[in-house]
Amino acid sequence: MAAIYSLYIINKSGGLIYYKDYGSAGRMDTNDSLRVASLWHSMHAISQQLSPVSGCSGIELLQADTFDLHCFQSLTGTKFFVVCEPGTQHMESLLKFIYELYTDYVLKNPFYEMEMPIRCELFDINLSQAVQKDRVALLGR
Amino acid sequence: MQFFGGSEISPSPPAPTAAGNNAHMMYVFNRNGVCLLYREWNRPLWTLNAQQDHKLMFGLLFSLKSLTAKMDPTSAEKGNLGVPQLPGQGCSFHGFRTNTYKLSFMETPSGIKIILVTHPKTGDLRESLKYIYNLYVEYVVKNPLYTPGSPVRSDLFNTTLDQYVRGIG
After folding, report:
1. Gene Ontology terms, cellular component aspect (chain A) (predicted)?
2. Which CATH number among 3.30.70.60, 3.30.450.70, 3.90.1200.10, 3.40.50.10490 corresponds to the domain B23-72+84-166?
């Protein structure tokens, strides 16, 4: 049983730059993951328009019937979101940690072009370690 | 509390968690996207005019529903993205939270959508939405003068609703 189902990273214009699946039923194909990512980008923007008070920065948590979606937006507009089991705790800190990994292993990589899909081996390794550690922590409770 | 087919409103609504008015606004849409009811209690910010605002809200819910139906990690057969879902079909959602508000959403089998926007710290409002739906059935649907699909104009419903929402924590 996976606590985290998948992870997406989208750039500031809504393009999917990273997608990793950790065992959801019926893996999404590439086209669908791109569509879902840009759809989330627009939903995030619309939710800011509908805010009854000013200063809204978009959806942080979406609670669906079978999963929770936690979203973290960095100051530059890059959005990180994880799909996890309903009621999973400590996802904000995991997202912040993934953001740290992104700054360390992706942004500081001289061969990485901004806003382009992420292909960095070190990022992959460290990310899977982080998610694995998170899973162990979840199983331990 | 009875949800469907109950002829009596439950005598004790779900206990409000704290005193004070935390609700910002509420929308009721029918299955065609007509805004049957809009109430607001505390809304300092308007970015659009009323009609555009209702359309945008309905569009957001519609798209979020197709998004959750497509993302559902527990089923392999999800169909195509953007195909309209019947009420109760596919994976839906019951709310989302931003840093400034929390939106709670309920859809009935007949396609009535009830949306309550509250303070982000409010708890789970699913029971409250069911109670509001019961109020709607009692005061609106059972009113013989009410034409289905037309905006709700019932003072009795509005006052009862105001009273109840004021108690939601």
Report:
1. endoplasmic reticulum; Golgi apparatus; TRAPP complex
2. 3.30.450.70
Q: Where are the domains of chain B?
A: 23-72+84-166
What interface predicted TM-score (ipTM) does this complex get?
A: 0.89
Interface test with A, best of B66, B100, B101, B107 (most A CBs within 10 A): B100
Question: Which is it for strands B35-40 and B102-107: parallel, antiparallel or unpaired?
Answer: unpaired
CATH no. for A4-140: 3.30.450.70
Instruction: Judge contact between B143 and B121, C-beta under 8 A.
Output: no
A34 touches chain B (CB under 8 A): no
Per-residue pLDDT at A135: 74
Question: Which residues on chain A are in Cβ contact (under 8 Å) with B96?
Answer: 47, 59, 61-63
pLDDT digits (tens, 9 = 90+) for A95-128: 999 999 999 999 999 999 999 999 999 999 999 9
Q: What is the pLDDT of residue B15?
A: 44
